[in-house]
Amino acid sequence: LDSNTFISEPAPSPISKLRNQYRWRLIIKHPKIKVLANIFEWIYDKYSVSGKRQWAVSMDINPYSML
To answer: 52, 47, 55: which is closest to 21 by C-alpha?
Structure first.
């Protein structure tokens, strides 16, 4: 990561619970999409437990809405 990277603190999503699952939001900003892709890959690899799916990770590039 470099000085162009912004990572917010985790916060509950505006809709914090959906289908009996809690949801959290983390905002990551960087001017280069390749850097964002590498960060997402690292997060996915770190929090995907082999054989069990305890975390669901999704990414929205240039979201239309923050809800």
So the answer is: 55
Number of independent structural domains in the chain: 1
Query: If DSSP states are collapsed to H, E and C, what string results for the chain?
Result: CCCCCEECCCEEEEEEEECCEEEEECCEECCCHHHHHHHHHHHHHHHCCCCCCCCCCCCCCCCCCCC
**Is 65 inside any structural domain?**
no
Q: What is the pLDDT of residues 21-55, one digit of tens each?
A: 888 888 899 999 999 999 888 888 887 766 666 67
CA distance 31 to 6: 10
Contact between residue 24 and residue 15 where contact means Cβ atoms under 8 Å apart = no
| 18, part of any domain | yes
